[in-house]
Amino acid sequence: GENVEQHPSTLSVQEGDSAVIKCTYSDSASNYFPWYKQELGKRPQLIIDIRSNVGEKKDQRIAVTLNKTAKHFSLHITETQPEDSAVYFCAAIGPGSARQLTFGSGTQLTVLP
Amino acid sequence: EAQVTQNPRYLITVTGKKLTVTCSQNMNHEYMSWYRQDPGLGLRQIYYSMNVEVTDKGDVPEGYKVSRKEKRNFPLILESPSPNQTSLYFCASSLWSEVNSPLHFGNGTRLTVT
């Protein structure tokens, strides 16, 4: 099955700096890559996603890039703010009938004021 | 309001005492799934269901059962809980017909087995 590795596990940045979280996946047939944000004590919520036919997608201060050849995708957050502090999960989904979503292990992002 | 509702939010129980965590969604989603979240391990899928009466094992199904008798409900059953099932559990649902339909998560159930 699919295996998703996520790095780093923790990341601290100064407010206003950029943050980058990277994920690699194992199944070259995977075609959908969402990112979820989980604030302390809350449920994970989708913040951005990308399909395999697109190399980059941007939504205000967040962007995701996908390199299908290398089988990795990254989350970029610019101009970080304290409210960006949370755990971020990447995920990958394959094209099979089960369409199971496999999550990375998560990155604890802390934005220091 | 579109939502996934889990109950209870917190549960403390003893080894071997059967329990059920309920999950209900009001979005007419075909796909429902259970995850457990443990520090450093992310979200691991326990069981999922693609529609009524259709369920299948995820990555960590041992010790758990599920059922999908109605489209809106997907309960998680621990027949004989053990301490290694102490975890934070999330139920989630999505539309099956759209490949990039987002997962909607419930608020979570924090289970402690002593």
* Topology of chain B as a string of helices (H) and strands (E): EEEEEEEEEEE
What is the percent of helical residues of chain A?
A: under 10%
Give the oligomeric state: heterodimer
Mean pLDDT score of chain A: 92
Q: Would you write up a description of this structure?
A:
The complex is a heterodimer of chains A (113) and B (114). Chain A is mostly beta strands and 113 residues long. Helices cover 0% and strands 56% of the residues of chain A. Chain A contains no helices and eleven strands. The radius of gyration of chain A is 14 Å and the shape is globular. Chain A starts with a strand and ends with a strand. Chain B is mainly β and 114 residues long. Helix content of chain B is 0%, strand content 50%. In chain B, the strands form two sheets. In chain B, strands 2, 4, 5, 6, 9, 10 and 11 form a seven-stranded mixed beta sheet that branches. Chain B starts with a strand and ends with a strand. The A-B interface holds A 1, 6, 9, 31-32, 34, 36, 42-46, 49, 51, 89, 93, 95, 97-106 and B 31, 33, 35, 40-45, 48, 50, 56, 58-59, 90, 96, 99-100, 102-103, 105-108.
Which SSEs are present, and which pair or pack?
The complex is a heterodimer of chains A (113) and B (114).
Chain A (H helix, E strand, L loop, with lengths): L3 E4 L2 E5 L4 E7 L6 E7 L6 E7 L4 E4 L2 E6 L4 E6 L8 E8 L7 E3 L3 E6 L1
Parallel strand pairs in A: 2-11
Antiparallel strand pairs in A: 1-3, 3-8, 4-5, 4-9, 6-7, 7-8, 9-10, 9-11
Chain B lengths: L3 E4 L2 E4 L5 E7 L5 E8 L3 E10 L2 E4 L7 E2 L9 E3 L8 E8 L9 E2 L3 E5 L1
